[in-house]
Amino acid sequence: MTLAQQFAAYSKWRTQLSAGLEAFRKCLSENELSDAQTELRIRQLLEKLREDRLNVAFVAEFSRGKSELINAIFFADYGNRMLPSTAGRTTMCPTELMYDPGKPPGIELLPIQTRESNSSISDYKRFPDEWKVVPLNTKSAESMQEALRSVSEVVRVSPDIAEKLGFASGNSESSVVRVAEDGMVEIPHWRHAIINFPHPLLKQGLVILDTPGLNAIGAEPELTLSLLPNAHAVLFILAADTGVTQSDLAIWNEHIGAPGGRKKGRIVVLNKIDSMWDELKSEDEINAEITRQTNSCAWTLDLPTSQIFPVSAQKALVAKINKDASLLKRSRLPDLESALSGELIPAKQEIIHENTDAEFADIYLRMHSLVESRLTGLREQLGELTELRGKNKGVVEYMMGKVRIEKEEFEAGLQRYYALRSVFSQLTNKLFDHLGLDALRLLTSTTRETMLEATFSKTLSDAMKNFFSVARDNLIKSDGEIGEIRTMMEAMYRKFSVEHGLNLGAPSNLSLLRYQKDIERLEFWCDTHLNTMFQLMTHQKNKLTQKFFEEVATQVRRAFERANRDAESWLKAIMAPMETRVREHQIQLKRRLESIKRIHQATDTLEDRINELLHVENNFVSQIQSIEKVGQDVQRILKVSVSHRNLLSAA
């Protein structure tokens, strides 16, 4: 199965899962079982599926054939090159290829001058007026080619302006841009580009990140702090004839394969192996030479050879367009596509499966348990009324008194429930004292003041270290408080189960470990790019402070924002079962008492009431069957692997 077929299968699986969740939501609504919290949780699951993206980043120095590789893997069926692929520099700014059905096809370009502000690319995505939009005529290949050339545009500015925008100028090897004879320098015209294109793969949720070379990568911190780390796969492209050059190694060490960084999903592509196809050499000699280059690259980058793929993107593109199977095989691109389809998509599906399965299972069990409790309560009521057949008035009075006592005992037990709510509220406030954004804002403010008032480099360095130390400590404390809340809820769940027969199961869990890992990753970046002796000695205090808060503290804030959303959802989810079951039990006890009262007062005949409850019992049984059927359908879809041979033909 090709990458395109595998991705289509994954997209189809995701669509089926969404349809199953919609059917489950409809079933709950039709049976009057849903509540505001359940509706919110299902809607959030559906939104995650709708917004699900598969992010694949392509990283390389100039002239490595990166754009040609993107064309060969994803857009050969288009019959032409979608991205411009010519000699020299074709991508000057980070470029995202995606599809948003709410917008017409086009290219959104963010001016390079926006770097002067304190706002990130993500912030600017919320302000469409800041972007220049170039329409895309998808019916004309020539028109598209012309429009797509905009991502390679440059602008000439003075060295001072270039420096201000993050492009260090000079004539040394470390300089980002070179000064021309007239004293001007060329820098990218655009800071970021988003190409909205209705390609089938992009419609299904694929997002391709095409990055510029080393100099431009280093000048855009959000690329290395957020976009690249969050990519599901990073393809690092080298030239087969040169192997790993000094600039290639710099990109790898600084942005992709840094010590402690993850290796999974990192794939190295040795492109342009056709340059080694020497007619004076045998096929075995050519293959041996390619193998030697592969082994050399693996040793230099400290990767297993299984993660390095020699290919010819240009020959593969030609082969696919001309349907030349022999040339395609020789290009070796199918090996790379097989690795991507065999590892990337199943891994992505597993993430969706885990996230959806746990949440759905909790909702399903709660709803199923709710109907079962209603059915159990109704059958108790039926049993009580059936026992009254042929009994005298005194027995009816005894039964009424028994239910009244049970109701009073439960209401007395509610005092513990109300006390629980009070403690729960206190623990929640304590949790957000550490996890909340107010605490982070205070930390950010005090850190900024310390850095701006610092007179020594050590004070600046210590302030940055303290920022991460406090942020990490707040997450660790929050994790402890989450554990305390869960322990308290487990005890209360068990108590109500034993004393009142309320089967509440086990409360769901929440871990903040992923956010602790985010903080560690950001601290490592800061320690290698900002908080170094070289940076502290060569940059002004104000500029270094600005870079820290624009590039690092912003990412920390986003991590805390996501952690807060997770915590808020979890707190609602952990209390909802208790609230629902307590309310249901109160209603059932009230109905049992009223039913016996009506029999006692002879306002209803016993048989009429029994028949009425039998009809309700049938409705509850039907509700359970409906929930089980729809729930099993969702669980069946979740268990299907996209690599299953029958998935493409599934209904």
UniProtKB/TrEMBL annotation:
Gene3D superfamilies: P-loop containing nucleotide triphosphate hydrolases (3.40.50.300). InterPro entries: Dynamin_N (IPR045063), P-loop_NTPase (IPR027417), TRAFAC_Dynamin-like_GTPase (IPR051943). It comes from the Bacteria. Pfam families: Dynamin_N. SUPFAM superfamilies: P-loop containing nucleoside triphosphate hydrolases. Residues 56-272 form the Dynamin N-terminal domain. This is Dynamin family protein.
